[in-house]
Amino acid sequence: MNKIDKIKEYLLKNPHKLRKDYAETSSIFNTNYEVVRGIARRLRKDLGDTQNQKEKEVINIEEDQDTLKVYVENSNRVKSIDDLIKHCNIDLVEWEINKYDIGTYEVTGFDKENNPTTVTMYRMKAWLTRVKPELNLSIVSKQLKEDLKDLSPKVKRIDRERNDRNDLYLLEISAFDLHLGKIGIKGDEYSLKIAETRLFDAIDHLLYRAQGYNIDKILFIIGNDFLNSDKDWPIPATTRGTPQFNSDYHIDIYRAGRKMLIKAILYLQKISPVHVMVVPGNHDRESMMHLGDTVQLYFENNDNVVVDNGDSLMKMLVYGKNMVIADHGDGTKIASLPAVISQRYKNAWSDVDFVEVHRGHLHTNKSAKFAAIEELAGITVRNLSSMSATDYWHDSKGFIGNIKKAQSFLYHRINGLQCIMNYNVEIN
Description:
By secondary structure, the chain is an alpha/beta fold. Helix content is about 30%, strand content about 25%.
């Protein structure tokens, strides 16, 4: 055994001398101080140093759109998958663990008193995927109703003076296809604030035009692509998945829409009792049904407001000799409407003289190629305009130049539709 091996053997038998007393050891073996210090340094490196394990710990996280990979090595802190989740601040609401692997190995080193010790070290790999939002919407809706029904403000029916009980009118206010969250092209900018301004300007204007009439009831039709999209995941898109460019997150658009509709209905109820029809569109079918539930719950205990958010995408109201029907227009073909309506509403059909069907979807009154009004078997079908901006897709397809407007319809209880009033949007 040469001198270097003897020094190694001596230091291993006396580990407290690996960090000090180099002069004493060099004297024992009659060698240079620096030689002993160099041998001790190499031995400490070979053995490991538990005092510096925290510094040597390696954590690597790789994330892309849908996957997360986590790699941990040389750790005495991360000993389980729970430790990994906590130590790496992984949100299990957002991420789901697919698989993981844990390995161990032994490291010999020295404690604070320079006594030799063996420590178990851990290495771990974990693979995670992003959780996709999958909810049982019927259960959510049912629970929402149960939780909120008692929170509805209690409002008694307002006593209203009517000049002539035999000369009553229904005022329909329709602001179809508002598309909250849409991004307009340059020169036709659009935002949640602009949409709200247009809606309330339209309501004010149309109510002003209806002054002097004995308004018995207001029909307020909401929906018809009130929201521009139905979801954010994985990108903003319609109910069927058509990508959309939105100005805000879907949840913020939803909340702005909820606030807007409740405010509008509270405003209208000051004039007359309000009947609200919720008509989901092709952009917002599921979201609008849930928004309709929220609005319905808010007015549950309000004797001046009725909210129709039934399962059917087509909604109907009978007022005297008038039947007013609203649907989005992307479902039932126009030629099939007489058969559908006569069967769906067969009992009410025989008691009315006038039937109006109002549809959205096309963002314009039918004109030129299509007649503005189509009368089928005593049914008048109208496609109503939109106040929303022109987006990139419509602009690229040449679908431009439509007059942006909201409309109101005044129905006499006995004599049917008397007039149509328009609010045309002014674009600076």
